[in-house]
Input
Amino acid sequence: SYLFALVGGDLVAEQDVFTTRSGRQVDLFIYTEPRNQGTCGHAMKSLKKSMKWDEEVFGLEYDLDRFMIVAVDDFNMGAMENKGLNIFNSKYVLASPETATDQDYLNIEGVIAHEYFHNWTGNRVTCRDWFQLSLKEGLTVFRDQEFSADMNSRAVQRIKDVRVLRQYQFREDEGPMAHPVRPDTYMEINNFYTVTVYNKGAEVVRMIHTLIGDEYFRKGMDLYFERHDGQAVTCDDFVAAMADASGRDLTQFKRWYSQAGTPVVQMSQSWSGSGEFTLTLRQHTPETPGQVEKRPFHIPVLVGFLDPQGSDMVEALDTEFEKRENSLLLELTENEQSFKFSGLHSRPVVSHLRSFSAPVKIKYERNLQNTTLQMASDSDLFNRWDASFSLSQSIITDLVDQDVTEDKLVIDAAYVEAAKSLLRSDAGDDALTALALQLPEEAYLALSLDNVDPDRLHHVRTFVKQELSAQLKEELHRVYELKTDMRDYSISPEAIGARSLKNTCLDYLLSARQADERIFAMAENQYYQATNMTDQIGVLTVITHLNTALRDELFSHFENKWREQPLVMDKWFSMQALSSAEDTFDRVKQLLDHPSFSIKNPNKVRALVGAFCQNHVHFHHLSGRGYDFLVDIILQLDDLNPQIAARMANPLISWKRYEKTRQDLMVGSLERLREKRDLSRDVYEIVNRGLIKS
Output
């Protein structure tokens, strides 16, 4: 049961006290193995911040006199919210500047909050049955995302959340494991702890929040707890509380819980030339396993209008649609709807789906001039980033589709100038600038291509990165030097952003076709002079792709320094598994025999094997060796840990997206898995659904 846990072992505790808003004292304990003593300070601070935030934002006070966390190294999941005694994977508890990156610190803060928030959304009110899993997980992910946004940069948090959704959940919606947020059936419930249930479930809650607004959402939460405290309930009960508190009819909206798939919204527009503007939206959801016919969703679409100078036009607009700051809330409920606006002094540039107001794919006719205007001026910071990200995506995928040899590839000068403008601007949020400069990953780019050739995709993306490195070299150097800070380590949003931008610049500089010795010296100096793990990893994650003596030297130094630190060694494994260098496959096979690797430890499997599966060019090697390697691992894991084995099988089921040779190899790998005697239910469900050809 989630509601009860008992832990025994040789453990030490870090203690603190939290005083609730009603004046009660709650004793806080974080238990770890003795060797990890002294590395729980950030986790404890995160716990206290979570408790305070839940009181302030949702009026929810902790109900017991003691709250305990136990951190363990061998754990399949991130954490479990057992009442009063949460069990955590140690990677989401232990941290020091020397051993944890900025992202580790942020992850710890978010996961600590997530599990604490489950005290109310998961424990005090729990699920009637497993089909309702998103009742607690989707709602609690939304709550932890909002907490992280309040603690750090709201725009950056939103970008990171959407990147996960687009890269992993959208892919799940397109594949054989597609399922609704509230699944209809399952063979093994462990296979439905998915990005659909968690992350898309959070987006469904967020859409309710968008539709009814802050005030009514809080009233809905209050009503939900008033009605159901101490009960096991359903997703419908949650929606009913929101509908009753706000007076909104959410009947159609509930299709988000029952229909699978990612809606595609086609946007077109017309301009009269005399101040009248029409925006037409059409929605269509592709069929998914077991669901051929799709009914229209209720989709909240936040839009803004920009004038030719990039200023918002909505505030001065006289309109029937609800205004949300500089945006308008449009509600798409039919297959096709047109929204008319008048009184505009010029044709607007549409800033669509602001803050990613719905988990949909939006299609429209792209205009480079409008996109660069949004990159520079959009007041919605998510859309400012998305303009840059989408432009990079279209540049790369268009080049992939061109029937030219690699030596004939050319990138648009306006694209380079837009990237240069990002480096020259003082946007005030370095983390946002860093994200805007970063190219989409190959696995994400593959989602927008048919008959994917991973080699072609890798070469084109590398070409674009090298071109940007060459043409932005001066600006990259300038910003790198500007953001180099030797002061004491801080995890403030400003300090994290500066390190992110600095390391993004270093990434580009080291990725040059022929990086000069000065750049290598700069990287070497950063590695050895670093006062924190983030700056060391910033060097290693780039140099891992280069076949140089410096790469071998730094990775050897890192191993020798951290071989007794399991979580740090996980980073060492992952960085090598993600390398695009030619020797990566052989290196990964050798690392299976490394003394710090154990196939029995889930973190180690994810760090090495899981990371290799994300290495798009090597995992999908045309020989099929990457697939064979994975099958061998899964066959071993299935007898040891079926839950992890099933997770490892997921990369094989996306075979339909690739060109014919790789399709056949991936299908053959799935068939080989299915032939195993006594195959676990966990793996069988993934494999069997993955082999469905239609």
Summary: The longest strand covers residues 12-19.
